[in-house]
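Dear colleague,

Thank you for sharing your sequence with our group. We've completed the structure prediction you requested, and as agreed, I am returning the results in plain text so they can be pasted directly into your records. Please verify that the sequence below matches your submission; if there's any discrepancy, let me know and we will rerun it promptly.
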Amino acid sequence: MSAVEGSGEQFIDLPVEALAGIVQATSEGTDDFAIAGLDVNDHAVDLPVKEPGPYSGTTFYSDEVSGRVARLQVVGEAWTVTVSPVASAPEFAGTATGTGDAVLLYPEKASALQVTHDGQRKFVVSMDGNGRGIVVETVGAYEALVEVLPIPAILLVTADGGWSIEAR
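Please find the predicted structure tokens below.
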């Protein structure tokens, strides 16, 4: 899907066959920025982004997590949203670093991850598709070795600062 640009509130219809997808978004405004996944009855079933502006990051929606997402509701100032297939996410190759939200394809290789975060607000690492769910959920700086299931999944990072993940 090509990039959709807007300001204020707008709805982006998703293809019926798109049961999951990668959402890359930016918002240059100073107001709150949010992306909600809505079902066919326009009930919110997912809230992949709700942050004070400005925002830049990559997130994920999935019917496995929240039910069928039929469209996205985007609210904010001067934003751009691009929806892509899950296969377009970069693969986690044993180490990854970044700042802000990210989505990585996680191959079945490690049973533990060394995770660090240097931000001050919410930090979440979760895995979709391997039954693990939330791996880390905390506020502020973080460093720990966490166990994970060594099966393929989507690795999701929500962060306000720099982070790193290394397979062990």
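Summary note from our side: The CA atoms of residues 35 and 76 lie 9 Å apart.

Kind regards,
the structure core
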